Give the backbone structure.
Amino acid sequence: MLTREEEDRIALLQGTVDLLILRTLLFGPQHGQGIARAIQEQSEDVLLVDHGALYPALQRLEVKRWISAKWGTSSNNRKARFYSLTKGGRKQLAQETSRWRKLAAAIGRVLGPEIMEG
């Protein structure tokens, strides 16, 4: 059973997960769990990246050569794959960020100002 807090988190669409992974890796290499945690923390616990979406996204991004991966040891001394942003990934991040900002602005215009209930 989900807690109220878990129900309030927003499920992420595939393209959104890709964009957030690329953005997270802009700050340096990270393993999968660290990427998920960083997204959750940066969104102030609103966004939760499910492992069922995270790892297929990492594989997809690696196939597209937007990220690369190598084995390393995590902070808790476990073997983990660490992902890094590639030059192509940086270019894709810039393009996708621009698209999402335009989309968010357009949706904001359609929704209009907040309506005060009273």
Summary: The chain has a mean pLDDT of 89. The chain has five helices and three strands. The domain at 4-109 is CATH 1.10.10.10 (Arc Repressor Mutant, subunit A). The chain has one domain: 4-109.
